[in-house]
């Protein structure tokens, strides 16, 4: 009883040095992102998604959210997204990503662009207002916008996601299921979702040319996409031999550092990679 009383008043996350360090780091990360949002130090970095076998022309680009810290360093989403996902700052980041993505689509009328969002932003009034505003100003934007939702996020509220997707697909918007295979998808929901694009998680793609387990798992994920008439994208393609293997295996599109790193400078303005078009 005395042992329980000893710990009773210790705040959550402070009961061990490691837990306290993690909590402090998360708090610091959240504050850094909040500052970036407050000062509009938020931008998109663009990465090409290329057709397998025809890699000089992008099928579309993904706009990946970045923030600047107080030293001016560009911080990628993977370093903060888990910390802010459930917070109001997470919703603000989704709104900024959407607004910046739609502005880019308005500026470049032949472009197709994917923008990431959390399922938690469905029904968020500000997010929906931003989308409505841009769709009214340029009716072609919907047909060129792809919204990416991670598998883990979609599975939190699958019924809500299904209705949301159905409504926006009527406006021409496409949907990509991001990080497929990383979570615990209920295949019953996959049947109901009608995603247009399925992005196979990078853990199955890295080193696939020489990894029999990843070859089997990727083939299984690919067959699911085929069954549901979804375009397949392999994420995290980093080596020539992996790109060659995936192309031979019939994966539709490839994305990763082997082709290009994400760039805050729009890569379609360079001569090297032709602009993606609808």
TrEMBL record:
SUPFAM superfamilies: EAL domain-like. SMART domains: EAL (SM00052). PROSITE patterns: EAL. Residues 26-276 form the EAL domain. InterPro entries: Cyclic-di-GMP_PDE-like, EAL_dom, EAL_sf. GO terms for molecular function: cyclic-guanylate-specific phosphodiesterase activity. Pfam families: EAL (PF00563). It comes from the Bacteria. This is EAL domain-containing protein.
């Amino acid at each position: 009883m005395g042992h329980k009383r000893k710990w009773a008043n210790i705040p959550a996350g402070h009961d061990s040095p490691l837990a306290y360090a993690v909590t402090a780091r998360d708090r610091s990360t959240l504050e850094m992102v909040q500052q970036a949002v407050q000062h509009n130090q938020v931008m998109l970095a663009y990465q090409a998604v290329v057709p397998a076998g025809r890699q000089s022309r992008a099928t579309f680009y993904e706009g990946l959210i970045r923030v600047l810290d107080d030293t001016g360093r560009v911080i990628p989403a993977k370093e903060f997204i888990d910390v802010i996902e459930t917070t109001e700052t997470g919703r603000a980041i989704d709104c900024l990503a959407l607004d910046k993505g739609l502005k880019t689509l308005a500026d470049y009328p032949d472009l197709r662009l994917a923008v990431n969002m959390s399922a938690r932003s469905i029904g968020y009034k500000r997010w929906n207002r931003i989308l409505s505003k841009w769709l009214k100003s340029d009716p072609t934007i919907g047909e060129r916008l792809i919204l990416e939702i991670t598998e883990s996020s979609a599975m939190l509220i699958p019924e809500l996601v299904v209705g949301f997707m159905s409504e926006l697909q009527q406006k021409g918007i496409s949907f990509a299921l991001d990080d497929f295979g990383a979570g615990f998808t209920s295949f019953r929901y996959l049947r109901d979702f009608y995603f247009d694009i399925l992005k196979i998680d990078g853990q199955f793609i890295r080193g696939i040319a020489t990894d029999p387990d990843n070859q089997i798992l990727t083939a299984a994920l690919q067959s699911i996409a085929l069954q549901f008439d979804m375009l397949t994208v392999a994420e995290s393609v980093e080596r020539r031999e992996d790109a060659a293997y995936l192309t031979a295996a019939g994966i539709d599109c490839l994305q990763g550092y082997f082709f290009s790193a994400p760039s805050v400078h729009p890569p379609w303005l360079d001569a090297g990679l032709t602009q993606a078009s609808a």
